[in-house]
User: Fold this.
Amino acid sequence: MKLLFDQNLSPKLVYRLVNLFPGSNHVQSVGLDCASNNQIWEYAGLNEFAIVNKDEDYNNLSVVRGTPPKVIWLQLGNSARLPK
Assistant:
């Protein structure tokens, strides 16, 4: 599974999870940092990404539109820095 991390998540997650989720990316890296949710949704669906986000926006889109793409909605607050 390839993950597409939304703007509200650190781009560093791509590098931390590369062994578990090869081919993953961040919206900044693919030129979608200023894109609308609909544009990111379309990109993720066409390129077989699951969207990882901390907002309910994409979850709401998945209820209305169905899949693909899949949505991983992280429902936790800001966390302390993870150890290396």
About this structure: Strands lie at 2-5, 25-26, 49-53, 71-73.
